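Retro notes - structure team

What went well: the batch runner handled both jobs without manual restarts.
What didn't: labels got mixed up in the shared folder, which is why I'm recording both outputs here explicitly, each with its sequence directly above its tokens.

Job 1
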Amino acid sequence: MKTLLTQLSIATALLGIVAPAYSASISFRPAGQQLDSDPMNDLGVSVGQQFTFFLSIDTTGLSSNLKSFTYRITRDNTEILLEVATITPEADALFTRNAISDIPTPPSLTVGTVLYEIKPGETFAPDSQLDFATATYVVQPGLVNDGLADYQIELIEAIDEQDNNITSQFVTSQTLDLQPVPEGSSTLGFLALGTLSAASTLKRKLKPSQKDKTTVLN
């Protein structure tokens, strides 16, 4: 399955020159950068290192409020192991979160699916951006530069307040390959940008934040 994820990611990159350009998206930071010849982005890390992904939803270019979205995270437990995942206070103030599944998939993947639904009286308008979760991982001894996807987010479904399926208006996936770097190297210099921008950017007023909630699905 990991090979299939990689093949789909490469095919998407190769077809990108003819695909429609969308502004709305689901994504994570750090996005990494190309460190080798394949089209997939890479992130240089070291065994034992701890790092954090920031998961974001962006409704730029949509014409109606977002009512719900369902996403899937696929991760390779051989190379990274989830330590803690936290729903941001901003997201918790707006959305109800429902964990649909968290399924181990041989030989080493885990696939988690999560649904976010807008709370009564709240709205998530077009042209808004929100960091809706953070997920902290520890790099495992199985880390290897195999050219295969180690972390992927996919938008499965997005519904607007008129109950229209608007998934096709989003960039729906992002994939990352983790790679070992020489011992003593500065592996996460470019992670600082992601860390500094951990706070959500929301172009609307939010209610007072509620307490963080923790999950195991990101």
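Job 2
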Amino acid sequence: MGMARPLRLAVFLLLAGLACGQGLGEPLGADWTAISEEPQATGTAPGPLGERPPLEGLLGPLPEGYQGFSLSVRLLLWSVPWTFAGALGGLVAADPFWWGFWLTNALWASVDGAIALVGLLSPEPDRAWLRDILYLNAALDLLYIAGGLWLASKGEARLQGAGWAVVLQGGWLLLFDLYHAVPLGE
């Protein structure tokens, strides 16, 4: 099947996922339960009881009182398309390299999605704790990238594909974690 078809499929699915995410700009509404009735450690309450900020606000700078929630939404916007793209790519890939690449992406992104869902359902974390966790995750991301490069150096095509998938996912998570941790330190 060659390299071009799975790559075109990945680009298509990634763009389709991003396009679908653009339609989610409506406020989530009052049917969501409040994050917490208590004021946050930052000194501000999360907003009126039962409301969440609109999605547009979650995609810009992290809104005060909603850092954990907006991080979870952003992580879902990455993980859901990659889970489906990886699963579909793995199903249609005949080459062992691409089979390993796509299925590892699906597995990795589904774990990211599970973490994001836990974040959506959890109380809003303290700002300093969230920053520390993001920096710890950034350090772990470096280990993921190193492990992915090690796998990619192996002779078996399936392991090479899996290794490059880990490098891709770990590299993106490194950028994601640092992008969100640095402003929390201010």
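One thing worth noting from job 2: Residues 4-184 form one domain.
We'll revisit the folder naming next retro.
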